[in-house]
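Reminder to self: tokens first, then the designed residues, so the page reads top to bottom the way the pipeline ran.
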């Protein structure tokens, strides 16, 4: 676990002359816990980059807002295991007085921590996990789901691939909550757009050898093999599909891919693939400016998880300052009342189910000869408005939503 204590803000908070806002903040310290994958299958898309993104948000907030309270960031590796995540969350809430836990890449860790946070009345801001369960049957009033979910990524990618002629599908699915959610959401989109699903096979999470699963998918004769996995699992699936000669005879659809995956695989292996992202570093002047600062620290461009974390933590800290409190319900109410307008999201807002609604983008990976500079990987093919990208409340299974 690493800790960064911002002493300039702490000195201000400890002053007896501090304003009423500091007086209503427990211990005069706002403590943010980044619980992420530091060593496993998702460490490249989250990990140290996620921690740095949160630190950037805190540093920028202190410089711009000059709060009269201290802000501390702690981080830990949950190893993609729900029990480790829940134990760390309980320790942070009970012993270390952490106010909010964020990232939680891997759905199993997010769901585990959400239960502890509800019990302790502390906030959770999920960025890295994807399952729609987070804002559906497992929703609660202390959790915000910020960056993406499986409904949005499937809605963008699967629809585009079907429209391009990929009518028959077979899924290669990570066998845990996230993979199952992604397969279900993609199946719904395929069927709704006139396609058909020939079957699926589930691989252990995390996986290393996908050969038998890929050969089963190949034997199905499907036009498209939908990869309902992420991170290193997706990277290894794509590499092994090429080794077995499955591609280009059959099309691969990466239902959740990050710019870090494309970087690892290279444009030759990924060219032409469609994917859905909430953020791309090279979209406009704002995204480029922030991403270049991130690159100076990490020596790689940020993923949508990194950018989403910065946005989420900034919004949280602004709500703390506005309310003069770190009380969970007061801060949550302020966050839900305040629109999100930053380099990550324009006209974003948090619904009653905890879903932060914002535009997402259908991308297509460039051919090697189309890339003009480092990390120049995507064509932005479509902007999908937030109210179309995310599941409508009319279909919500969240008990907080009264139909």
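Designed residues (403 positions):
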């Amino acid at each position: 676990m690493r800790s960064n204590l911002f002493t300039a803000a702490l000195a201000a908070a400890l002053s007896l002359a501090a304003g009423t806002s500091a007086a209503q903040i427990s211990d005069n310290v706002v403590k943010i816990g980044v619980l992420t994958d530091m060593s496993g299958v998702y460490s490249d898309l989250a990990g140290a980059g996620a921690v740095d993104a949160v630190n950037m948000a805190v540093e920028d907030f202190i410089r711009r807002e000059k709060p009269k309270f201290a802000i501390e960031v702690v981080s830990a590796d949950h190893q993609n295991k729900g029990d480790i995540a829940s134990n760390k969350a309980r320790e942070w809430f009970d012993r270390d007085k952490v106010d909010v836990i964020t990232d939680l890449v891997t759905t199993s860790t997010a769901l585990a921590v959400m239960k502890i946070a509800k019990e302790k009345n502390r906030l959770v801001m999920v960025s890295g996990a994807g399952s729609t369960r987070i804002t559906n049957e497992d929703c609660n009033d202390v959790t915000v789901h910020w960056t993406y979910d499986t409904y949005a990524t499937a809605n963008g990618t699967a629809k585009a691939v079907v429209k391009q002629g990929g009518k028959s599908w077979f899924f290669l699915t990570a066998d845990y909550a996230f993979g199952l959610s992604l397969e279900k959401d993609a199946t719904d989109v395929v069927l709704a757009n006139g396609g058909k699903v020939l079957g699926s096979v589930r691989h252990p999470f995390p996986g290393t050898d996908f050969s038998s699963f890929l050969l089963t998918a190949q034997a199905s004769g499907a036009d498209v093999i939908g990869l309902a996995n992420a991170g290193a699992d997706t990277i290894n699936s794509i590499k092994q599909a090429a080794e077995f000669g499955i591609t280009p005879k059959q099309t691969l659809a990466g239902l959740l891919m990050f710019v870090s995956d494309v970087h690892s695989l290279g444009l030759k292996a990924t060219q032409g693939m469609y994917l859905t992202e909430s953020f791309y570093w090279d979209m406009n002047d704002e995204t480029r400016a922030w991403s270049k600062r991130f690159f100076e620290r990490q020596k790689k461009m940020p993923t949508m998880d990194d950018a989403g974390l910065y946005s989420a933590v900034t919004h949280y800290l602004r709500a703390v300052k506005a309310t003069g409190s770190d009380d969970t319900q007061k801060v949550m109410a302020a966050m839900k009342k305040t629109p999100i307008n930053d380099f990550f999201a324009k006209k974003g807002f948090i619904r009653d189910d905890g879903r932060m609604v914002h535009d997402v983008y259908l991308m297509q990976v460039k051919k090697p000869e189309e890339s003009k500079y480092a990390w120049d990987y995507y064509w932005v093919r479509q902007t999908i408005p937030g109210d179309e990208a995310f599941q409508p409340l009319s279909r919500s299974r969240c008990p907080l939503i009264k139909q």
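Residues 2-148+283-357 form a domain with the Rossmann fold fold (CATH 3.40.50.2300).
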